[in-house]
Amino acid sequence: MTLLAPLGWHIQLHAMADQIAAYAPLLKRLPCQIVFDHFARLPAKGGLEHPAYEVVCDMLAEKRAWIKLSAPYLVSHGSSADLQVASLGSALVHNSPERVVWGSDWPHMTEASKPEFQRLKDMVNPMAQGDTTLLRQIFISNPNALYGFR
């Protein structure tokens, strides 16, 4: 890990919310940035009360981490899945709008029925409450900052 920080590299972490909470002291000590993949695997229903939510929000506020809005199908299921994911995503977006990026999660290896790209992209709109400035941050400015795009 100490080799990554001087290079400006980050760790993309696909961990369950319980693991993030359990390893919080270690994660907070890492010398490089962390990208929490897949909504930090916080459950869409009840995720705001999960101990990992506070860990993630603290690290976002300290500018030690990023959150990737990807693979919503991994954090919510059932008839109200879209609403639950929108609520969780909205909380994350409004907590640290400058630390949120979007990802498609293509090629969706876990899914027998592959989700439509446009539908996944469109799910971010209610998370940003249609705010075009926030949407521009999530899709353009923040990835530019994270990945050093010019």
UniProtKB/TrEMBL annotation:
InterPro entries, A to Z: Amidohydro-rel, Aro_Compnd_Degr_Hydrolases, Metal_Hydrolase
The terms under GO molecular function for this entry are:
hydrolase activity
Kindly give the Gene3D superfamilies that the UniProt entry links to this protein: Metal-dependent hydrolases (3.20.20.140)
Per the database record, which ranges form the Amidohydrolase-related domain? Answer: 3-149
SUPFAM superfamilies given in the database record: Metallo-dependent hydrolases (SSF51556)
- Recorded protein name is Amidohydrolase family protein
The protein's organism comes out as Agrobacterium salinitolerans
